[in-house]
C-alpha cells in the first residue's frame, strides 16, 4: 500500500460556529475554506463510505454529520463518485484526517470539497450533536466564522428554507439525456431511468445485468418513452416527494405498459402516483446498517438508507398494494408491490454504495419482470 501526503497546503485552522434552529451552538474549525452555509442538519452512522455520501445527490440542501469520529483517511477516488459533483452544503465531523493512505486516491477530502465549493468543518462534538438531532429531530442549521454576531446567525436561520415543500429533485436532474451501455453482457433490455438524483452505482448494477440505461430528465413525458423501453427505473433523489408532481403522469401512464422499479424517492413517487400520501420522518434514515425484514420470507437484510420522508401505509387500500418490507428499528414500511401490475419499489438503497450487498437481488427481480413482460408482449 502506498501512503500519500495531502495535496492541500496545511493551513492555520479558522474557527467556526454551527448554530441550530433550536438555539444550540457548536464550535469547531473549518478544514476547507471558511464560508457561510445553511441547510437541514442530519446524521449518518456509516463507518466508511464518506465519498459516496458526499457525492450522493439525495443530500441536496443538507448538512451531514458523520458519527464515525475520523473522516478523510483514505482520500478521494474520482471513479468512486456517485454523481458528477457533491450536492450537500456542509460535511461535519469530529476529526478530519488530511493525510490519506490509499493507492487509488488522487486528492484529499478537504481539497475535493474545496474544489466543489462545499464546506467541511471538524472539531465538533458529533456525539452530542447527534443525540440532539435524535431527541429533537432534524433541525435547520447555519455554519459561519466563529466571530459572526448571534443576530446575524439568527437571521440566516430564519431565512433558510424548510425541507418540507421543496422540489429539490428537479434541481439535481440532468437537463439532457445520456446513455450508460450494458456491460459484462450483451444488451438484453433497455431501461428508461428518470433522473431525480440517480446514483452511478444504480446504473452500474443494471448495466452489469445486461441493461442499457437511458438517463432522462425528470421532465420527460410519457410520449417520449412509450414503446421504446422494456422497463422504467424511478431513481433516488433529495427532499420532499410531494412537490415533485411533474413525473407522476409519466408513472401513471407507464403502469401496466412496462415493469416499474422505484428506489428511495422513486419508491415514494410510485406510491404517490397510485394515490398514496407521504410524510416527513423525525430525523430520517441515513446509515448503512438498518435492518429490514422481508415479510414474505422473514429474511432480514442489512440495508443502506438515505431519506427523510416515508410513505403512509394507511393511505392506499390493501387490495391494491402489499407492503413487502418493514424497518425493524421503527416499523416504517420499506417496500411494496402492486398486486396486479408489474411494479414494485423499496425505500432503501439496494445498490449499496456505501453499504452491505444484501439487497442486490432486487435488480434481478426487476430484470426477471422485464423478461416476463417481454414474453407476454411477444405472445
Question: How would you describe this structure to a colleague?
Answer:
The protein is built from 10 helices and 19 strands. It has 379 residues and is an alpha/beta fold. It folds into 2 domains: 14-159, Glucose Oxidase, domain 1 (3-Layer(bba) Sandwich), CATH 3.50.30; 169-378, Rossmann fold, CATH 3.40.50.880. The strands form 3 sheets. Strands 10-12-11-13-14-19-18-17-15-16 form a 10-stranded mixed sheet, sandwiched between helices. The longest helix is centred in the last third of the chain and has 18 residues, at 361-378. It is globular. Residues 5-10 have low confidence and may be disordered.
Question: What layout of secondary structure does this protein have?
Answer:
Layout (H helix, E strand, L loop, with lengths): L13 E7 L4 E6 L6 E8 L5 H5 L7 E5 L3 E2 L18 E3 L2 E2 L12 H7 L3 E4 L3 H11 L2 E7 L4 H10 L9 H4 L5 E3 L8 E7 L4 H9 L2 E7 L4 H4 L5 E4 L13 H7 L5 E4 L1 H9 L4 E17 L5 E12 L9 E7 L5 E6 L4 E4 L14 H18 L1
Parallel strand pairs: 3-4, 4-6, 5-7, 6-8, 11-12, 11-13, 13-14, 14-19
Antiparallel strand pairs: 1-2, 1-9, 2-8, 3-9, 10-12, 15-16, 15-17, 17-18, 18-19
Helix pairs in contact: 8-9
